[in-house]
């Protein structure tokens, strides 16, 4: 695939949506490939500075294991939740000891079963990390119900288990993620086992029946 990822090529439905094959930066309904630290031939921080955007050093690493890594979802955040026009930096990463699993409850908006993060020793998956400005994190808080006036579906926590590495093997430290914070957003247990999103597609996941994993079985730092 080429170096530009128009939203139309990466629909958000079915949840969690499709994802570009490289890291990318997103502006104006288009992602631009970020490969080898370069965007359109420029180092990432130079590319950001030329657009008046915050450098990577001023951004928080937020693991995205569901729909927030989808370009069309990013445009939805801009249109409906007031996400600013500043570029979004989305790094493709590989996680170990962590897994996206299906949550116990369904989304009220469309009946889809959302993902939630779980600690799973020995599991390796591919996800993404937003390098997000404080303003962008505030919008994610609203989207995930983690803002002060939200419903608390998820909360933003610092990961204290597993590893997150970029495509070139760089270990990312001080990574945060939105983790389940209510019974509806605890991992779904079917016959006592969590169900990885990588193993079961959305059309099957929304039909699953099980129970919510109890809070004492999973912990993240605040």
Description:
It is a single chain. By secondary structure, the protein is α+β, with helices and mostly antiparallel strands. It has a single domain (4-217), classed as Hypothetical upf0131 protein ytfp. It has 4 helices and 14 strands. Strands 1, 2, 3, 4, 5, 6, 7, 8, 9, 10 and 11 form an 11-stranded mixed β-sheet that branches. The longest helix has 11 residues, at 71-81. The model has no long low-confidence stretch (mean pLDDT 95).
Keywords, separated by commas or semicolons:
single chain; 222 residues; alpha+beta; Hypothetical upf0131 protein ytfp; 11-stranded mixed beta sheet; Gamma-glutamylcyclotransferase; transferase; transferase activity
Strand content: 25-35%
Structural class: alpha+beta
CATH superfamily: Gamma-glutamyl cyclotransferase-like
Judging by the overall fold, what is the CATH architecture?
Roll
Mean pLDDT: 95
CATH class: Alpha Beta
Unreliable stretches (pLDDT < 50, length at least 5) are none
Total helices: the number is 4
Organism: Pseudonocardia sulfidoxydans NBRC 16205
Keywords: Transferase
GO molecular function, one term: transferase activity
Protein name: Gamma-glutamylcyclotransferase
Summary?
This protein is α+β, with helices and mostly antiparallel strands and 222 residues long. The chain has helices at residues 44-49, 71-81, 134-143, 202-205; strands at residues 4-6, 23-27, 30-35, 38-39, 42-43, 60-64, 88-102, 115-132, 154-158, 163-166, 176-180, 188-190, 193-194, 211-212.
């Amino acid at each position: 695939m080429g170096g530009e990822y128009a939203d139309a090529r990466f629909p958000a439905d079915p949840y969690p949506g499709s994802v570009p094959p490289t890291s990318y930066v997103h502006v104006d309904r288009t992602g631009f490939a970020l490969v080898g630290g370069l965007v359109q031939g420029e180092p990432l921080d130079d590319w950001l500075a030329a657009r008046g955007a915050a450098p990577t050093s001023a951004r928080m690493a937020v693991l995205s294991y569901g729909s927030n890594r989808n370009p069309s979802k990013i445009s939805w955040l801009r249109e409906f939740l007031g996400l600013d026009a500043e570029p979004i930096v989305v790094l493709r990463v590989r996680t170990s000891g962590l897994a996206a699993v299906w949550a116990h409850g369904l989304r009220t908006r469309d009946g889809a079963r959302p993902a939630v993060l779980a600690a799973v020793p020995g599991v390796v998956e591919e996800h993404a990390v937003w390098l997000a400005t404080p303003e962008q994190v505030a919008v994610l808080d609203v989207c995930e119900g983690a803002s002060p006036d939200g419903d608390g579906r998820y909360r933003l926590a610092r990961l204290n288990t597993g590893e997150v590495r970029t495509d070139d093997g760089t270990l990312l430290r001080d990574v945060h993620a939105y983790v389940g914070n209510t019974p509806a957003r605890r991992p779904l247990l079917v016959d006592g086992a969590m169900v990885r999103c990588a193993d079961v597609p959305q059309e099957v996941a929304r039909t699953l029946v099980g129970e919510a994993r109890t809070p004492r079985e999973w912990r993240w730092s605040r």
